[in-house]
Amino acid sequence: MAYGKEIELFLVNGTADSLITAELSNWNGKAIKIPRTEVAACDRDDIKGVGVYFLICQEDDGTDSVYIGEAENVLDRLAQHLRDYQSGKEKYYWNTAVIFVGRDLNKALIRYLENRFVEIAKDCGRYAILTKNTYKNTVLKEAQIASMEEFIDNVKILINTLGYKVLVPVPKASDDTVYLYCKGAGASAKGFVSAGGFTVLEGSIISDHTVPSLETKGKTYFKLRNNLIKDGVIIDRAFTRDYEFNAPSAASAVILGHTSNGNVDWKTSDGTKLKDL
C-alpha cells in the first residue's frame, strides 16, 4: 500500500523561478533548487554542505541532459562549474541546479549516491547523462547502504516534485491498459497513453526513411529520432526499450518518418482512432 507524503516547499525569494527549498516530513535531508544566475551571489550555509547535485541542461536540439555530481561543499563546486564553462573546459550549459544535502552525509556516502543516481538515470533513459566517471566500488556497511537507498527514494520523490523526471522510470502497462498501434511505410509500433504523454513499447519498428517535411516542419521530431538512434534507444530500426514521448504525435512522427497527427495515426486493434477513445 502506498502512503501519502507531506512535502514543504519554500519559495525563498517569493517567486517560483528563483531559489526553492523542498523538504519531506520525517527526513533530515533537503532539496535546494537554484537557477544558474543566482549561484554567484549565493551565500547560504545549507548549499555549502556535503551533498549531491543535478545540473539540468537543455541541448540545442531540445533534448534534456543532466550532469550528476557530488561535493563536500556543493556551492564551491557549482562555482567551479561556472568558471570551467567560462574558460572553455566545460562545454555544456546548465540552467538550474538541484542539490540534495543531508546532516549525516560524508565523502564515501555521496560517492555512493552519485554512482547510484547515474545508474538510475541511465536506466530511466529520459535524460542524456553528461557525467563521465563515478566511483563504482565505494565500500559501505550494510546499514549505510540501507540508509542511502532510503535517501535515494526520497530524492526521487522530491526531484520529480520539482519538475524533473530524470529518476522516473518509463511507465509500465497495467491489466486494463488500452494498446494502440501505428503502422505505415515499413513501420509497425505498439504503445499506450501514459501519464507523461505516450509510451512506445520495446520491439516497435520505425520506418526505414524520413520524408523532407520531417526535416522542415517537424525538425524537432527529426532531431529526436536521430538522438534516439544515437543514444541506442533505437537500434536497427527497433526500439530496444520502452520509451515515453511527451505526446502521441511526437511518437508517431518518429515512427513514421514524417509529420503526423498522433490522435489519428494511433489506433486500437479494431481501428478506433485515439481521438475517438
Q: Care to describe what's here?
A:
With 277 residues, the protein is of the alpha+beta class. Helices cover 30% and strands 25% of the residues. The protein is built from seven helices and 13 strands. The chain has helices at 74-87, 107-124, 142-161, 212-216, 219-230, 248-256, 262-265, and strands at residues 7-11, 20-24, 29-35, 51-58, 64-71, 94-102, 128-129, 180-184, 187-194, 197-200, 234-235, 238-239, 243-245. Strands 1-2-3-6-4-5-7 form a seven-stranded mixed β-sheet. A hairpin with a 4-residue loop joins strand 2 (20-24) and strand 3. Helix 2 crosses helix 3 (142-161) and helix 5 (219-230) packs across helix 6.
| Average of pLDDT | 93
Q: What is the strand arrangement across the widest sheet?
A: 1-2-3-6-4-5-7
Shape: globular
How large a portion of the residues is in β-strands, by DSSP E? 15-25%
Spell the H/E element sequence.
Answer: EEEEEHEHEHEEEHHEEEHH
